[in-house]
Write a structure and sequence with these properties.
A two-stranded antiparallel ribbon has the order 1-2. The protein is 72% helix and 6% strand. It starts with a helix and ends with a helix. The protein has 205 residues and is mainly α. Helix 2 packs across helix 3. It has 7 helices and 2 strands, in the order ααββααααα. It has a domain of 123 residues.
């Protein structure tokens, strides 16, 4: 109890209202009197009742974890998580009240407690910084989602094969071809020199 008093007013309202809502959900929210007796159903019957009960349990567990100083690996802050859960609980309670038949006192009491949960969630948001804290959490969540999607897109991108490098002639082959060319030209030059020397020899004789 001392730990609960150390928390904000919004958390206290949420916790007390959520616990009372869970208790009230086991009473008859629908009841009809017949000649054979009175028959009824609690809030755990129907889609909206089941969803409301699950969300309320999650909220109570979230607040209990905070009271026990247990870190929950959720990318959203406590105020944002509580606000989302509180609003959803109130919406489910109102929809259940509107869609059910043979409603009795406990149905209206449960809706009042669900609205109290939403009010406590709003007070928690105000203590955390108001609407700006919700916007900050939303932007950080979007940035985290974008960062997680970027590596996946890079992995799925098709890899383009690199173009093969042009083949360059080896230096040894180039030197070998140059030597063969020089060797083939040498006899031709020698023959041409010998031909040019013959007339001069005949004149001397």
């Amino acid at each position: 109890m001392d730990n609960l008093k150390a928390l904000g007013r919004g958390t206290q309202v949420m916790f007390i209202a959520a616990v009372l809502l869970l208790i009230v959900m086991f009473f008859h929210w629908q009841e009809v009197d017949t000649a054979l007796g009175s028959f009824g159903q609690n809030a755990w019957h129907g889609f909206w009742g089941v969803v409301m009960g699950i969300l309320t349990i999650v909220l109570v567990a979230r607040i209990a974890a905070r009271l026990a100083a247990v870190e929950v690996p959720i990318p959203l802050s406590f105020a944002t998580t509580s606000f989302v859960l509180g609003i959803l609980i109130a919406i489910c309670a109102v929809l259940k009240l509107l869609t059910d038949d043979y409603r009795n006192f406990w149905a209206f009491a449960g809706v009042g407690l669900a609205i109290a949960v939403a009010i406590g969630a709003w007070l928690e948001v105000q203590e955390a910084g108001g609407i700006e804290s919700l916007k900050s959490d939303a932007s950080s969540l979007g940035s985290s989602a974008s960062a997680m999607a970027a590596p996946a897109a890079t992995t799925d991108a098709p890899s383009t094969p690199a173009a093969p490098a042009p083949e360059m002639p080896a230096a040894a082959d180039t030197a070998h071809d140059a030597a063969e060319t020089a060797a083939s030209e040498a006899p031709t030059e020698a023959a041409s020199d010998a031909t040019s020397d013959e007339p001069s020899t005949e004149r001397e004789s």
